[in-house]
């Protein structure tokens, strides 16, 4: 009777992927076991379908833009939105938070490589004075929100195989930053194999597959596979506040946003900011065939990105996607179980591999394809999807690049501007141009105020107001 290993090897050979085990007999027993474990993760039927539709001659079809129009969104009161509707939404969101219906969910599988940082991106020090990490910022916002609404929040964090152990150790070593460890749930993202241009699965080494995370869209099936959705159901959680790990300004749980989602009966809702300039690298919220979609900046022709409304002069396709969503738990389960499953996208990459003789290959140009899913591709399948406007200054300053746009320097400046703006609103004398960051360093802990409203509440309770000077921390 064949062993489990023999069955796995035969399955790959029958699928035309026997090259995965070309060096198997020469591996040590523990290396053989690791390769079998990696191969067992692979859905060969799914790989075959992706090769046929995305890699085979002709490749994927270009994005279909027929009938595309800009998507409407709920504007902020200061930009013409209905102040009463926003107030009603905030009240509904606060009620859901007090009832324990909401959990935070962070996609945190990345490393800090592009920042020149060795470690999980969530451990990157980002604040201006204390140099607290992204994870600490989010932890303190979630802790403060739980205290405010009288219901400690659960926090689900999707890691990757690459950074899971380091992320677990980081939270453990920092005592979960004051959060109940039983409410902080880490689980791994799924992986997909890379293939060459003939559809053959690549080996990274003689004893390991070239595997990579399956994209932020993989978060939906990872929630299902990890048991997180079952835990949510048991805890009475039906609403997930989704955000990515690189954005310290994000309001981890925004009552008004949650309220818009619930009052509209939405299964998936999104935040938008008006694009700063036509070529800004944000996806575009659009409608196509009556459904809400996000069109990547690389898929929308530049002439459409630059098109302006003749009556206002604003960009016609102005609604930029910033990867902040509220998602219904049952919708996640439905998508994860294959009802309206997310499509995979092709990414041509340079992939370290080995040749037929087992020698290392470090290509100078793309030599294969990785497959990834995007979470916003769930929007067309969602009932009553809602898009609301948010202020860039309140919600969006990602740390992606070591220098230039979306870098630690630009994020630090945005944090300083935010803190200074709150202090001015409270009546403090902060000498600086409101459009520019102050010339001295200051930092406000999320435990004191995680948005303008909670900051103002804490400031009003201070018996003696602190002097505003270099290094101020609250």
Account of the 3D structure:
- It is a single chain.
- This protein has 474 residues and is α/β, with parallel strands linked by helices.
- It folds into 2 domains: 69-405, Alpha-Beta Complex (Spore Coat Polysaccharide Biosynthesis Protein SpsA, Chain A); 407-474, no CATH class.
- The protein is 31% helix and 18% strand.
- It contains 14 helices and 20 strands.
- It has helices at 4-14, 29-40, 44-55, 83-98, 134-149, 164-173, 218-225, 228-235, 255-263, 302-305, 329-336, 392-395, 408-425, 452-461; strands spanning 69-70, 102-107, 155-159, 184-188, 191-193, 203-205, 208-209, 211-213, 239-244, 268-274, 283-288, 291-295, 319-328, 344-349, 353-354, 360-361, 368-373, 386-389, 442-443, 472-473.
- The strands form 6 sheets. Strands 1, 2, 3, 4, 9, 10, 11, 12, 13 and 18 form a 10-stranded mixed β-sheet that branches. A two-stranded antiparallel sheet has the order 5-8. It has a two-stranded antiparallel sheet with strand order 6-7.
- Helix 1 crosses helix 2 (29-40), helix 4 (83-98) crosses helix 9 and helix 7 (218-225) packs across helix 11 (329-336).
- The protein is globular.
- The mean pLDDT is 94.
Could you tell me the CATH topology label of the largest domain. Spore Coat Polysaccharide Biosynthesis Protein SpsA, Chain A
Q: How many strand segments?
A: 20
What CATH architecture of the largest domain would you give?
A: Alpha-Beta Complex
Quote the average pLDDT: 94
Structural class: alpha/beta
- CATH superfamily of the largest domain, please? Spore Coat Polysaccharide Biosynthesis Protein SpsA, Chain A
List low-confidence stretches: none
Q: CATH top level of the largest domain?
A: Alpha Beta
Helix content: 25-40%
The rounded Rg comes to 24 Å
Strand residue percentage: 15-25%
End-to-end C-alpha gap: 68 Å
- Biggest sheet: strands, sense, closure? 10 strands, mixed
Shape: globular
Number of helices: 14
Total discrete domains = 2
